[in-house]
Design brief:
315 residues, alpha/beta, UDP-N-acetylmuramoyl-L-alanine:D-glutamate ligase, ten-stranded mixed beta sheet, four-stranded mixed beta sheet, 14 strands
Length: 315
């Protein structure tokens, strides 16, 4: 069982244009309605791959009710904490091919100190029977980053995975999680601008960040270039695979789900990286962040190349 915490969950609506816009109007149809937010996206894909997933976070208002329904529809166990506010909507309008898109989203509800405390207690309860607890996504407005510090510390040592950004990432790092999964821009924001410049810069940033934050395992996504993984004193590069890209929304969440799927199967870091790249690529082939076909993920898994690199590789 994996528990995935999404403090600012949403209902995501993806609309497809039926014809080119005429002046100020365009005819569209609803293509997909999904539970949104990093952990919720990943949980949906995990269940599709055959793993047990539990969603934690907040649910309030009519959007929160629908969010709970959508998670249950997708086979995800829900342990959402009730709040007085209403969850946010995330709306995307794409062209008929799904390649050109515009997204609109609300900031999300403010949550009270008592509501944050209730979610923290739920994390503590769920952590004991979870193989891993993932803290993911942007926090709701007004959340103090120190809450993420407490949330990491609420999870038994070695089981917490962090996938967030900005002040929330810094707050989570203060709690010393076992694993951090971010993209290169998020790594650069920690004070390593070289991560934006080259793959070699990413590798050097990982080495520096590992020592500074005392995090044992880093997973850095690189878009079409794949990912770099630092674990157990080793540096691995998982190369991306070529697919027909229709949508990158949810790609990182597919990556996270694939990584966790590999862990559930007892695979080593190389195997986990292959599942991560494969699941991410399969999500990108779809017009919306729907759960990919397990058969397609397995097919792409066979195409992923993972290689060991020197710790000070020039790349």
């Amino acid at each position: 069982m994996f528990s995935l915490v999404t403090p600012n969950g949403s209902v995501d609506l993806t609309f497809r244009q039926l014809e080119p816009p005429a002046e100020r109007e365009a005819q569209v149809e609803l293509y997909a309605e999904t539970a949104g937010g990093k952990g919720h996206n990943a949980a949906r894909t995990l269940f599709a791959l055959g793993d047990r997933a539990r969603a934690l976070g907040f649910a309030g208002g009519w959007v929160g009710n629908r969010l709970t329904e959508l998670l249950s529809r997708d086979g995800v166990e829900t342990r959402l904490t009730p709040i007085a506010g209403c969850n946010r909507l995330f709306v995307t309008v794409a062209d008929s091919h799904g390649r050109r898109r515009v997204s609109y989203h609300l900031a999300g509800p403010h949550v009270s100190h008592s509501e944050l405390g209730a979610l923290l207690e739920e994390i503590r309860r769920c952590a004991h029977d979870s193989e891993a607890v993932v803290l993911g996504g942007a926090p709701p407005p007004g959340m103090d980053p120190s809450w993420l510090t407490d949330a990491v510390r609420a999870v038994p040592e070695g089981r917490c995975i962090v996938d967030t950004s900005g002040h929330a990432l810094r707050g989570a790092l203060a709690g010393r999680p076992a694993t951090v999964k971010v993209n290169r821009a998020e790594l650069a924001s920690l004070g390593y601008p070289q991560a934006r410049e080259s793959l070699g810069g990413v590798a050097r940033a990982i080495v520096a960040a590992s020592a500074r934050f005392e995090v044992a395992e880093w997973w850095i996504t690189l878009g079409r270039h794949g990912a770099l993984v630092s674990t157990g004193g080793r540096l691995l590069r998982a190369r991306g695979v070529k697919v027909s890209m229709r949508n990158t929304s949810g790609a990182g969440d597919g990556f996270l789900a694939g990584m966790l799927h590999g862990r559930a199967r007892g695979e080593d870091a190389e195997g986990q990286a292959r599942w991560a790249i494969a699941a991410s690529a399969a999500v990108c082939e779809q017009m919306a962040p729907l759960a990919p076909s397990p058969a397609r993920v397995a097919e792409l898994y066979d195409e992923v190349v993972v290689e060991a690199l020197p710790r000070r590789t020039p790349l």
